[in-house]
Specification:
Layout: E1 16-17, H1 26-31, H2 57-70, H3 77-88, H4 95-105, H5 108-113, H6 116-119, H7 127-146, H8 157-168, E2 175-181, E3 187-195, E4 202-203, H9 205-214, E5 219-225, H10 235-249, E6 254-262, E7 265-268
Parallel strand pairs: 5-6
Antiparallel strand pairs: 1-4, 2-3, 2-5, 6-7
């Protein structure tokens, strides 16, 4: 993260810096096709039970059978994605699309974390399919967040990390998030306080503490992401954290930790004994 301005006690507080053409949606395309008379050909001579069958139909059934009988461990990531795309794109071979998505974004989580605009750059993915993929991602994030409700966050640390990773690891810009806790360390609010560029986000310590007072929070967990993928804290990260800790301490508000999220892992400043 880029180094940001130092704190100031003036009224105008400065922030700390935290460190082939687009394809149409296949569903609307096929759903909107007009039925025009066509010249009879060989396929029309097939039995009714085979007419309209495409080469990938048998593959879909075999893949479903493997999932049904052996579970998800029997399938590669692209095959799991392929199973999902069966429903989103019902009249097209989705195996090449699933493989292209994994290749472009690196992993299954990378696909679901990618912005919708980038998803549509993959041949075969239209706007509606991209939005459906983002909807599934949102459901997953909400499910993880629900695991934190009415629980003491410090005793559910793995759930905190899983939720923050799902919410932030694949963001293309830095964002600064705060988990506000009550005196029992139960989650009161989860708020994104700022969004920045690829390598920094402005953070105003005074606004952080002000929001904690508005929510009657007695503790906080600070979280931000590094789009580069490397969660190593910068000097600006550590300096900013110290300023927030000092400002919060004066008002009896505890900062339990500052977590930095990367694509492949996370760093806890408390775990590194930096706070």
């Amino acid at each position: 993260m880029a180094k940001g301005p130092v704190a100031t006690s003036s009224d105008d507080e400065l922030p700390f810096a935290i460190e082939e053409p687009v394809a149409a949606d296949e569903r609307s395309f096929f759903g909107g096709r007009s039925q025009k008379p066509s010249v009879p050909h060989a396929k029309s001579a097939l039995p009714a039970s085979l007419a309209g069958q495409e080469h990938y139909h048998g593959h879909r059934e075999r893949l479903r059978d493997r999932f049904r009988e052996q579970g998800d461990t029997a399938l590669a990531d692209y095959e799991i994605l392929e199973l999902l795309l069966f429903r989103l794109i019902p009249r097209r071979d989705t195996k090449p699309i699933a493989k292209a998505l994994i290749e472009r974004f690196g992993s299954l989580s990378g696909v679901f974390g990618a912005p919708a605009a980038l998803l549509t750059e993959v041949k075969g993915v239209g706007e509606t399919v991209a939005l459906d993929l983002k909807l599934i991602s949102t459901v997953a994030q909400r499910t993880l967040k629900s695991e934190l409700r009415n629980k003491q966050v410090l005793s559910s640390w793995s759930s905190v990390i899983e939720y923050c990773h799902a919410a932030m690891a694949h963001e293309t810009r830095e964002q600064f998030r705060i988990l506000f806790l009550d005196k029992r360390n139960v989650l009161i609010a989860d708020e994104v306080q700022g969004r920045g560029t690829v390598d920094h986000t402005p953070v105003y310590p005074r606004e952080v503490v002000k929001r904690a007072l508005e929510l009657s929070a007695t503790a906080m967990i600070l979280v931000h992401n590094h789009p580069s993928g490397d969660p190593t804290p910068s000097r600006a990260d550590m300096d900013m954290t110290k300023v927030i800790i000092d400002a919060a301490k004066a008002l009896d508000i505890t900062v339990h930790d500052h977590i930095i999220i990367g694509k492949d892992g996370h760093v806890s400043l408390k775990g590194l004994k930096l706070i």
